[in-house]
Design a protein that fits this description.
Blueprint: E1 7-14, E2 17-24, H1 26-43, H2 56-86, E3 96-99, E4 108-115, E5 129-136, H3 139-152, E6 155-158, E7 170-179, E8 182-195, E9 217-223, E10 237-251, H4 257-260, H5 269-303, H6 310-330, H7 335-343, H8 346-369, H9 376-390, H10 394-403, H11 407-425, E11 428-435
Parallel strand pairs: 5-11
Antiparallel strand pairs: 1-2, 2-4, 3-4, 6-10, 7-8, 7-10, 9-10
Length: 447
């Protein structure tokens, strides 16, 4: 306990928020006020007085606000710290202080509103009932992936017969757009390649090009949607003058020896099919594990309801917004525009941020209860695994983590994974067969 004797009462606002009410005797207030004036008086430059010789009444005329601010800072700082320690309050952020200042000969009163660590006991986390979806890779899955590869290696060739545009064609066009009778530079382009049926243009634009021949021109009338990105034309009628320079159609390669030459790793089609099948199996395993992890987390959160401090959620939202901003910049967006967009994503991120925070708190509580820990060996194994994935030297990576204070973050990551593995082991898992209805190309798999 410090030298300031404060009366403290604590109100529960919620399970994670406390309001602390302080009253400090005038004697302690006067003592700190006297100290403040003493320090100020040593350096104060007041006309007609030497430093250190200025009377208190004169100092009060010139330095009252400064002295009271310094006294309040000491009174609040010491009494708050003592109260938090004495009452064993696990605060998670700086307090919100409300005080009306010092009044002569009166006790000093103030309140400190704080958020605290949530206190709860994890429950019902053993024997979680979850479904493990098993995806069987069938021949048609392999063929579908092979077809996607054919699409990747397709070519665009000008049509030979004199026919009009059909859906699926790629057309080279010049167009000039007018709104309110005025030509718009943003709606004008030359040698623009458009896939008919892609629906990337204004609704109705592509449909009106059907049947138009190469070398022909056509006037196209459209209405811009109310939510069109360019606000100056949204909801308005527009007219496009379009000239068709060329019509191309997609040609798919035959699945023969020439197609296999696109891939260095295979001599024949069967080798490629075998690798595709193995890749699909690995993708399914990754998906199954991710789905199982998410299901375990969902069951955990259903069984454990508790409040979380808003400061935790806001920090997570800031972290997510920062990540979104960096991704936009990496994709070529102007940093200022990326910052503006990411700052408007906070409400969208809130629900996900709350789930992430709750999950992390819950998993750490379970780890504590089940005595799950992370030792230096666990950290070494994880760092060596990362070094292999990143093709980096282990010692260099280790030094980088230590220099940049990333070791604690890695430790938390390992602890959460070990705890999730424990929960998975203790779960009641029911295997369910599913068809392989998601097909993505792993760009690195077929080279």
């Amino acid at each position: 306990m410090g030298q300031i004797e404060a009366e403290v009462s604590i109100e529960d606002i919620s399970s994670v928020k406390r309001k602390m009410l302080f009253e400090i005797p005038w004697a302690d207030v006067k003592k700190e006020l006297d100290k403040a004036y003493h320090v100020i008086g040593k350096k104060a430059k007041v006309k007609g007085f030497r430093p250190g010789k200025t009377p208190r009444k004169v100092l009060e005329m010139y330095y009252k606000n400064q002295a009271e601010e310094e006294a309040v800072s000491i009174l609040v700082g010491e009494s708050y710290a003592d109260a938090v320690k004495e009452n064993r309050i696990s605060v998670v952020d700086n307090p919100v202080i409300d005080q009306k200042g010092i009044e002569l000969n009166k006790n000093f009163k103030y309140t400190a509103t704080v958020e605290i660590e949530p206190v709860f006991e994890p429950k019902d986390y053993i024997g979680l009932e979850v479904e493990k979806e098993e995806y069987e890779v069938k021949d048609e899955d392999v063929e579908a992936r092979l077809e996607q590869l054919r699409q990747m290696y397709s070519t665009l060739e000008s049509i030979e017969d004199n026919r009009g545009i059909i859906e699926g064609d790629f057309v080279n066009i010049d167009f000039e757009g007018k709104v309110d009778g005025k030509t718009s530079k943003k709606l004008t382009s030359k040698n623009y390649m458009l896939e008919i049926g892609s629906k990337i243009f204004v609704p109705g634009f592509e449909d009106q090009l059907i049947g138009v021949n190469k070398g022909e021109s056509k006037e196209i009338k459209v209405r811009f949607p109310d939510d069109y990105p360019s606000k100056n034309v949204a909801g308005k009628d527009g007219i496009f003058s379009v000239s068709v320079n060329d019509i191309k159609e997609k040609r798919l390669p035959d699945l023969d020896e020439n197609f296999i030459k696109n891939f260095d790793a295979y001599d024949k089609l069967e080798d490629l099919k075998k690798d595709i099948r193995e890749s699909l199996v690995k993708e399914n395993e990754t998906r199954i594990n991710a789905d199982l992890k998410n299901m375990i987390i969902d069951r955990l959160l259903e069984n454990n309801e508790f409040e979380i401090p808003s400061v935790f959620v806001n920090r997570q939202i800031d972290y997510m917004a920062l990540g979104a901003r960096q991704r936009m910049i990496n994709d070529g967006m102007n940093p200022e525009k990326a910052a503006e967009i990411s700052s408007n994503l906070h409400d969208r991120f809130k629900s996900e941020a709350e789930k992430i925070v709750k999950t992390s708190l819950l998993i750490h509580k379970i780890a504590e209860k089940e005595s799950i820990t992370v030792d230096e060996k666990d950290i070494e194994v994880k760092l060596r695994e990362l070094a292999r994935k990143l093709a980096q030297d282990y010692e260099s990576l280790k030094a980088s983590y230590e220099t940049n204070n990333l070791k604690e973050h890695l430790k938390n990551e390992i602890l959460e994974q070990k705890t999730l593995d424990f929960l998975k082991e203790k779960s009641d898992i029911r295997n369910v067969k599913k068809s392989n209805n998601k097909k993505y190309i792993s760009w690195h798999s077929y080279r």
